Amino acid sequence: MDFTIGPTHPEHFDKLRAIELAAFETLRNAGAVTGEAGASSLEELSNFSRNGLLLTAYTSDSVPVGFVAGKVEGTWLHIAEIDVHPQWQRNGIGRLLMERILLTGQQRGLAGATLTTDKMVAFNARFYGTLGFNIVEGHAQPPHLVSLIAEEISKGFIPARRVAMWVTF
């Protein structure tokens, strides 16, 4: 498959939201989430984009099929969202998106990257481990991870399955 990774065009925000909703159902089917599906708001996507931390995977005919969104939290790049449409999963798109945003964080001189994820689904924590991420627990967690895990649980994520991870640059 031929894909390119590049900045997201605002006219694709609605497509990214649809990708996020479809990917939520993949997580639901894997037992990682419960509750109502939700997607990033247009305002959130705009903020990620404005900060240069919203990257999209495009097919050769410029159709968005996945995206990664990040934000800077202190000295860390936090991966806020990464989704690949279920029809396009297992083609290396998620890995390409992550590699590109991690490179962006390195180029900006950040300490490393953080994320929260499900620790039981193979395409989550284990996948991030192949990119150098390690689980971080307790007092070692940067403050933004503590509050994010709590927020995710309040939205219906299963507490026993949530984990915070980080990688240093």
UniProtKB/TrEMBL annotation:
InterPro entries: Acyl_CoA_acyltransferase, GNAT_dom. Residues 3-151 form the N-acetyltransferase domain. Keywords: Acyltransferase, Transferase. Pfam families: Acetyltransf_7 (PF13508). This is GNAT family N-acetyltransferase. It comes from Rahnella inusitata.
